[in-house]
Q: What sequence folds into this?
């Protein structure tokens, strides 16, 4: 068996999330089926994150164990050939030691959330960003976000379906910046709760629109109560952008 | 009659181009129908450029003459409401004097051509960029492009369907730069021939892949013969990004 680490990009729009679901197609199913078509084996895909329906990835990290010998580049090419025309692509592939685990070895995860802030509806970014027509104060959002950075009980910002053992997480960074009519939220942590990024962005958007005072974000956090959540941002603006590992110098060789 | 200048963004994918066509839906038709629904008038849309089927726009400039009085912002909102769910949006609207013409007053046009240069197929950028799997030398492309800058007979880079009176144009700038695995070609001129940007990009892509020597771009230009064209780049990577006018300080007020 060889463990192959894959870097995966996908458009989450047509999928019921990354992880296998009973109710519709998933990215995991697409890749596992491609792997079976290529290798004849039933490899299981393990991934750094578990993205929801509609959430995108620019560089999800995953792994598959495959018995048949492959050059990583050839495996990547073969998987991509079988994945077509689904909007999933393996953008890098490399061999890893068998104790490397895409999920359990991952020491850092980063998400980006894209908001387009303008009156006009979206065209090219439809399904790729959250459209907010009311003007957002990105500076106020950034200031309010800083209350969430650090080691906290994030119960307020956690889906009722979250399977994490504890609601306590350390948020390493949460920044909000304006780039023209785009407002970009960037979040980094060792790990996140289910819906955490979308829940944080939802509350920050309330601050940005002046519906919440900046301090209300800190109050919502302190409440440790899902009912204190102002708003859960929609999935289509969310991108999984990076997973970090101890051995990162060797990453993405294919 | 009031002349309203519109700034228009659209995903060219589902359209048979900007201009009205007999064979399928056009951006012009979508906007004219929205304008009729809003005003009850049969206004004709005039635009700075004539983009082909599949070509996108981030900021096309157009105008409509409308008798019914409107605040520009209200007209923009009403047009966008009627345009949904087509991927066309009016992102700005302002009143102009009646001698201002979106096409004839335009003194500069700019296009961007996006190439994604990697082995893996495209996912989120499918239909939004030209996918070239073979490595491109963007520096060589940029050097070769400089032979096209200036006042030249661009017959080689002109569609046989081009309606321009003369093949002689002045290309103000043509740059090629790499941004990660994206290679971006930017072109600016007072005006362009039909297919000129795509034809120039096609030849530069041959240079980038080492299929053409850099000098061959200059030779193709000197040939003044469409048969000397190496390759016409596909439409999906092309974006109309800006139109310039003498009175630009007042632009995009809504």
A:
């Amino acid at each position: 068996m060889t463990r192959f680490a894959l870097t995966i990009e996908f458009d989450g729009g047509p999928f019921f999330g990354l992880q296998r679901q009973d109710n519709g197609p998933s990215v995991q199913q697409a890749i596992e089926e491609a792997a079976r078509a290529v290798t004849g084996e039933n490899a299981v895909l393990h991934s750094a994150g578990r993205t929801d329906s509609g959430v995108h990835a620019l560089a999800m990290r995953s792994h598959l164990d495959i018995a048949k010998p492959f050059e990583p580049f050839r495996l990547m090419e073969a998987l991509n050939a079988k994945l077509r025309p689904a909007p999933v692509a393996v953008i890098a592939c490399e061999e890893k030691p068998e104790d490397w685990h895409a999920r359990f070895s991952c020491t850092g995860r980063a998400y980006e959330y894209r908001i387009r802030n303008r009156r006009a509806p979206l065209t090219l970014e439809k399904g790729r960003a959250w459209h907010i027509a009311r003007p957002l104060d990105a500076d106020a959002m950034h200031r309010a976000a800083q209350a969430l950075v650090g080691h906290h009980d994030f119960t307020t910002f956690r889906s009722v379906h979250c399977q994490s053992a504890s609601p306590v997480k350390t948020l390493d960074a949460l920044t909000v910046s304006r780039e023209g009519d785009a407002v970009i939220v960037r979040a980094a942590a060792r790990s996140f709760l289910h819906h955490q990024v979308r829940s944080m962005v939802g509350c920050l958007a309330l601050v940005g629109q002046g519906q919440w005072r900046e301090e209300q974000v800190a109050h919502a956090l302190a409440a440790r109560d899902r009912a204190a959540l102002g708003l859960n941002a929609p999935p289509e603006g969310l991108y999984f952008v990076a997973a970090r590992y101890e051995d990162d110098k060797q990453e993405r060789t294919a």
Notes: Chain B has a mean pLDDT of 95. The helical segments of chain B are 27-39, 72-83, 138-145, 196-208, 215-223. The first helix of chain B runs from residue 27 to 39. The radius of gyration of chain B is 19 Å.
